[in-house]
Amino acid sequence: MQKENKMGVMPIKQLIISMSLPMMISMLVQALYNIVDSAYVARLSEDALTAVTLAFPMQNLMIAFGSGLGVGMNAILSRSLGQKDFKKSDKAANTGILLTIFNVLLFVILGLFVASPFIHSQTNNVSIAKDGIAYLQIVNCLSIGLFFQMTFERLLQSTGQTVYSMITQATGAIINIILDPILIFGLLNLPKLGVAGAAYATVIGQCCAAVLGLFFNLYKNKEIHFHIKDILQIDGAMIRKIYEIGIPSILMMSIGSIMTYLMNKILIVFSTTATAVFGVYFKLQSFFFMPIFGMNNGLVPVLAYNYGARRKDRIDEALKFAIKLAISIMIFGTIIMHLFPRQLMGLFQASEDMLAIGIPALRIISLQFPIAAVCIALGSTFQAFGKGTYSLIISIARQLVTLIPAAYLLSLTGNVNNVWFAFIIAEGTSLIFSLYLFKKLYSNIVVPLDIQEPIKGAY
Q1: Taking a C-beta distance cutoff of 8 angstroms, is the pair 255, 397 a contact?
Q2: Which of 140, 171, 228, 399 lies 20 to 30 Å (CA to CA) from residue 214?
Q3: Which residue, 410, 326, 399, 419, is CA-closest to 369?
Q4: DSSP element (H, E) containing 114
Q5: Confidence class of residue 357 from pLDDT cuts 50, 70 and 90?
């Protein structure tokens, strides 16, 4: 007999904290790595920092594919556990491993043939292009660590084993932080690799995290069982179910890659310094967004499990608590960005020109943080209940329909500081769509849970 999973019996606030806190800590470590990684690269030169910024959209695309797969796999797995359908939960896990292998092969090909034209499409600067191509080819062609790390962490999260997921992610990030100065600057009698060293440090950390994640899933995750035969068996029905939920998430995050790519092109018209500031902002904002995403990763399986168990009361309580927690974190982030922008920019060896652009940028963009908190928390319901298309609609409205056109029009004023207001405008659009679609989902899927009949519209 399988004992009842804690997601169905533990008091909600205690459950959300126990599920989310490890993920929030690991995400904070990940955010710290992002900042430290770019801070070391900035010590090489501003051009080196710009090169890594130009590579970011393709990196984000890799994360989109890995995360989208994880969303689909997790939603089916957690719901199956709530329904006590353990055969289906195992099938979701084994199929997820196979799809991870496909992701690796895809991005190896992109690294070999697309990295160079992708970087050259954003800059004509020879030095920036050389570093950007080298960085991107390394992280793409050695992406096996990234994809398997993400899959193994999602499997641990889906069964409530978030402490092990925290250890996995934190270990990879810490190894990365340790290796960064060694490989970038050639310490310990190793060759000085520059920007390429940052890329190698990243993939080595990811590979170590992937190995540790495999160990935890094999020996600590008792609710999932792996079999080579099941991994290699292509189950078309399960693949379709995973991607019905996951593809909207992939597209949503891919839109983020398009957004950063287009923002790079808008900002580089002003100067490479403006593009570098945009890259710095993304690294700094991750320190506040990553904990929210960690909370979201802990919240989704809780919602999915209690949906499978038809516990509307637990779903309601979880959502209310998560929204309050998210807003509190983001208000703190806005305060920090307003009070200490010069000190934050100083972490990246900012010149006076960079400070002149960066200080107002951080203060303006951070005004959107509390609004984003609500949108992210509400978005967890779309993932948990198989309505990934809702997240996709919101992402398109926010980033492509609103943000990029607004940024372009504001850039025509000739003042780069005006461009940053586009983020606030876009987040307001996101909030409107999020509230409307959440109300629709809640009425159609969550409210009927009190009625003992099958629910139409989810999955």
Answers
A1: no
A2: 140
A3: 326
A4: none
A5: very high
CB 416 within 8 A of CB 274: yes
Q: Where are the domains of the chain?
A: 6-450
- Distant-in-sequence, close-in-space partners of 402: CB < 8 Å, separation ≥ 6: 422, 425, 426, 429
Tokens of 322: 């998560």
146: amino acid identity, one letter = L
349: which residues sit within 8 A by CB, 6+ positions away? Answer: 39, 42, 43, 46
Query: What is the mean pLDDT of the segment spanning 166-177?
Result: 91
Task: State the pLDDT at residue 3.
Answer: 56
Q: What percent of the chain has pLDDT over 70?
A: 97
Residues 222-232, mean pLDDT to the nearest whole number: 89
More confident residue, 92 or 253: 92
> Tokens 């899959």 map to which residue?
151
Which H or E run includes 261?
Answer: helix 236-268
Rounded Cα–Cα distance for residues 77 and 72 (Å): 9
**Residue range 29-54: average pLDDT?**
90
> Sign (positive/negative) of CA torsion 198, 199, 200, 203?
positive
pLDDT tens digit sequence for 190-209: 999 999 999 999 999 999 99
- Tell me the per-residue pLDDT of 268-291, one tens digit each, with 9 for 90 and over: 999 999 999 999 998 899 889 988
Host H or E run for residue 206 = helix 195-219
Q: Cα separation of 46 and 131, whole Å? A: 12
Q: Are 19 and 301 in contact (CB under 8 A)?
A: yes
Cα–Cα dist 17/130, whole Å: 45
**SS3 (DSSP) at 231:** helix
